[in-house]
Each structure stands twice: as C-alpha cells, then as structure tokens.
Design brief:
The chain is α/β, with parallel strands linked by helices and 334 residues long. The chain has a single domain, classed as 3-Layer(aba) Sandwich (Rossmann fold). It is built from ten helices and 14 strands. The longest helix is centred in the last third of the chain and has 24 residues. The protein starts with a strand and ends with a helix. The structure holds uridine-5'-diphosphate (UDP).
C-alpha cells in the first residue's frame, strides 16, 4: 500500500520521500507549496497540489491510490510568528490535522505519523528530557503540537484500527548526504541554516541571542539532529506500526547538547570563513537547554542514527547552501 506524505515538497518531508523511495515504497505527495519547492519532489512521485485538509483533493488522491499510512509533515513552524498569529497555528497545525485524521480513519488508513516537536516541553530544565516529562509548551506553536498529540491519543483510544506515532523533533539540521535535498525555503530562523548562510556570504553575519543563560558558556544549548537520521526515525516508526506495534510518542534527538557559541565556532571551523557575529538580547521564549533522552526511539523503535556528529551536520548544511547558490546562478543565467 502507498504512503501519503503531506508536506513532501518541504525540508523534512522531502527527505522522508527520498527515504521511502530508497526503501522501494510507493509514495504520494500532497503539498500546498507555501514553503515547499516543486523541484524538490522527484519526478516519479505522484504530486497533488493543495491543502492537505481539503476533502476534494484527498478524494482525488484516494481514488487513485491505496493509502495505507500517512506521514504528516505539513504545518506552520515559526515559533515567534505563532505568538503574533496564534489562530493561524491552531488552524494549520491542529484543526487541519483533525480533518486529515478524520478523513484518513474514514478510509481505513491505519497508520499516522505526526511531526510533533520538543516545543511541547517548554523549558524542561538542564537534564535530557524523556517523553514522560511534563508538557508545558511556552508558545502557541508548541501548544498546537501538543493539542494534536492529544487528539491522536484520544482518537486512537476510541478506534483500535487506527494507530499513530507522534515524533517530537529536537533541532533538525543538515541535508541529504547525497545532496538530493536540503533546506531551501526562503526565510529561515534556525541557527545552523543562518550560520551556513553567513558562511556562504548570503547574509552579513549572525546574531547570538542571549549570553546570560544558566549554561556553561551562557548561550542556549540544543540537541541538533541530522535530517536524514530524522527521516530514518520515521521509517522505524512506520515499520513498528505496520508490525502491529502500539501507538507511540518518541523523542527524536541524539542526547548531546551544543551551545549556540559551539555551533557558531564549528560552522566557522568547517567552512573556514570567519563571518561576523554580534551579541544580541535574548529571543523571547528561548529555553536555556533542550536535549532529548532518545532511549525510547532507540530501544522500542530500533532507531540507530548514523549521522550523529555536529561537524557532519554542518558540512552537509554548507554543501547544500553552496548548491542553492549554484542553482540560483544557473536559473538566473537561463
Ligand atoms: N539562535 C541565535 N541566532 C540566530 C538563530 C538562533 O542565537 O540567528 C539561537 C536561538 O536563540 C536558540 C538556538 O540558536 O537558542 C536554536 O535556535 P533555533 O531557532 O535554531 O531553534 P529552536 O531551538 O528555537 O527551535
């Protein structure tokens, strides 16, 4: 049976499509191209353009394909924007997912994998966080993810034919090692992407938001996970559900934390470019440290990440940034 990937033209969804193709799965993509790129979807993949909660498009997909599982990546992801536009986040991330779940269950689609976030934890303290830690999101973005997890939990409890995996992403970065995909959307707020843009001259430099946190060097500590390992985690979750395993909630991070300053220094070292770095005030809502305890994914889902190395993540992010520059030169020369 085919796997439907929502947001399959986007950053993480795009890497998932590659993983599924590498595994010889039948893949179908739906994307509204709000941030995704059409060229990111391999030509052999059936592609539907539109809103993943639009029943007429879902009808078209289901009439042509036998969808056994949905991997649901599309959604809105900018934490600061969610503070200004909370209803957008509840609509995009929660309400539309409800519609999708409802539709999928009506069509007997049995497995649903949801892109959740470490943002459901809020500010969890200075230890690696397990899935059983209290959920206390500090932004409408985080709350919209948590509400959706709860919908999935309650719906699955009422409907044993439907099982789900909610994967809580930590800080996703890097690009496909073969350079078939990477982070391409125009505006980025994420540290490694911004640092890669600074190193390749796309932006003047980088600001470090806050140096007075309770961390060893005063800057925030995060758990950076390679996007290809994250796609692997989804495939492990899919295998788990297909094998009859119960619904799960799983952290996706490595369990090792790096400070903003360590990341910036590593990007400078790997790129060989000493780009400008300035100190700026704290960004509202940033927690001092968020690092995953990923024992559950490793032991219960059989996840065995292969790219757990900050330099590798940065090298791939930089390579992809160069590729984007080459592509732009190519496009503008046409
Ligand atoms: N950060 C920074 N400068 C930037 C972008 C991010 O200092 O230009 C910091 C941010 O304040 C946070 C960390 O880098 O402490 C990771 O931020 P990112 O937006 O990548 O992910 P988040 O952890 O917020 O989801």
């Amino acid at each position: 049976m085919a796997v439907l990937v929502t947001g399959g033209a986007g950053y993480i969804g795009g890497h998932m499509v590659l993983k599924l193709l590498d595994e010889n799965e039948d893949v179908v993509v739906i994307d509204d191209f709000s941030t995704g790129q059409e060229w990111a979807v391999p030509a052999q993949v059936p592609l539907f353009r539109g809103d993943m909660a639009d029943r007429s498009i879902l009808d078209a997909i289901y009439s042509e394909h036998d969808i056994g599982s949905i991997l649901h990546f599309s959604g809105s992801i900018v934490v600061s924007e969610s503070v200004d536009l909370p209803l957008k986040y509840y609509r995009e991330n929660s309400c539309k997912t409800l519609e999708l779940i409802d539709y999928a269950a009506g069509k007997q689609t049995a497995h649903f994998i949801y892109s959740s976030s470490a943002a459901v934890y809020g500010a969890p303290g200075l230890e690696p966080v397990t899935e059983t830690a209290p959920s206390a999101p500090e932004s409408p973005y985080g709350t919209s993810k948590l509400v959706t997890e709860w919908m999935l939990r309650d719906f699955a409890a009422s409907n044993p034919a439907f099982r789900y995996a909610a994967l809580r992403y930590f800080n996703v970065a890097g690009a496909d090692p073969l350079m078939r995909a990477g982070q391409s959307s125009g505006v980025s707020t994420h540290l490694i992407k911004i640092a890669a843009e600074a190193a390749t001259g796309k932006r003047d430099g980088l600001q470090i938001f806050g140096d007075d946190f309770e961390t060893p060097d005063g800057t925030c500590v995060r758990d950076y996970i390679h996007v290809t390992d994250l796609a692997d985690a989804h495939y492990c979750a899919l295998r788990h559900l297909r094998a009859g395993g119960p619904s799960v909630v799983a952290n996706c991070g490595y369990g090792s934390g790096y400070s903003v300053r360590q990341v910036v220094d590593a990007v400078k070292a790997v790129s060989g470019v000493d780009f400008k770095v300035t100190q700026a005030p704290r960004r509202p809502g940033d927690a001092a440290m968020i690092v995953a305890d990923s024992t559950f994914a490793r032991t219960k889902l059989g996840w065995s990440p292969e790219l757990d190395n900050l330099e590798t993540i940065i090298r791939h992010a930089l390579e992809w940034e160069h590729k984007l520059i080459d592509r732009q030169i190519e496009t503008s020369a046409k």
